User: Which sequence fits this backbone?
């Protein structure tokens, strides 16, 4: 770790390493065989022996490492650690400051988003109210148009109905007048028949009276009293004229009829006075 830090700051430790290797090879003639032997470790090294048939190889590896750290580097490390601690504190403060700034920025952004959302909702509500009002006006006009059309249709229907009712009333009145005329005609005929019957009866009575007068004249003639007698018999048949009005129809019955029968009788009577 220290060497890495020193390398970063350009201060390398003073390190010294040495390595020594010694090899010994011995050859012998004869059958071939290989033997590897490891000798005991020497001071700072290890000896290796290999035998193969007539060849003997001995190797010795020696390693010596020396490390020196100066006090100056230790002070630098301590200073670096102090700076590192300070840096950590500064980083913590900076992180806290940045965190606070980020929180404030996020809070401001959230407030902005909330305000924009609220403004959009208010605008949406305003648009909805405006659109609703426009639709209400539109449908109000359509409804008014429909009502006017219905009024026109109603007026036409009522006019047609009134015309039909007038026609039916005219037919009813015409039929009633015809019936009334027929009834009046029958009534007049009946009254005329009654008058004829009455006239016939009157004539019959007049004839009876005339016969009686003639009989009386004959009696007077027997007494020989000469006189002239004129008998006037007037028969009058009177029917009161009445007017019947039924829905504009009127019938008038004739007022009266007068019949005069005149009988004149002349006779001579002879009267004896004492």
Assistant:
């Amino acid at each position: 770790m220290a060497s890495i830090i020193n390398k970063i700051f350009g201060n390398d430790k003073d390190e010294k390493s040495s390595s020594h290797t010694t090899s010994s090879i011995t050859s012998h003639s004869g059958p071939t065989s290989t033997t590897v032997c490891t000798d005991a470790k020497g001071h700072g090294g290890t000896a290796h022996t290999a035998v193969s048939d007539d060849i003997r190889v001995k190797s010795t590896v020696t390693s010596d490492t020396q490390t020196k750290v100066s006090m100056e580097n230790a002070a630098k490390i301590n200073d670096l650690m102090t700076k590192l601690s300070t840096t950590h504190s500064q980083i913590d403060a900076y992180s806290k400051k940045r965190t606070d700034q980020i929180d404030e920025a996020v809070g401001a952004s959230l407030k902005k988003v909330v305000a924009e959302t609220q403004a959009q909702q208010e605008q949406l509500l305003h648009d909805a109210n405006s659109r609703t009002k426009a639709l209400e006006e539109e449908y109000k006009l359509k409804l008014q148009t429909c009502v006017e059309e219905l009024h026109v249709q109603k007026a036409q229907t009522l006019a047609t109905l009134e015309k039909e009712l007038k026609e039916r009333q005219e037919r009813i009145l015409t039929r009633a007048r015809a019936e009334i005329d027929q009834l009046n005609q029958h009534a007049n005929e009946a009254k005329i028949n009654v008058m004829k019957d009455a006239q016939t009866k009157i004539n019959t009575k007049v004839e009876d009276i005339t016969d009686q007068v003639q009989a009386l004249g004959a009696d007077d003639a027997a007494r020989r009293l000469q006189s002239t007698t004129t008998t006037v018999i007037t028969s009058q048949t009177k029917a009161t004229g009445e007017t019947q009005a039924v829905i504009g129809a009127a019938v008038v019955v004739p007022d009266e009829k007068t019949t005069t029968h005149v009988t004149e009788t002349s006779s001579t009577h002879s009267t004896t006075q004492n």
About this structure: The beta strands are 14-26, 34-38, 45-52, 55-68, 227-238, 243-246, 249-252, 256-267. The helical segments are 2-9, 71-222. Residues 121 and 127 are 10 Å apart (CA to CA).
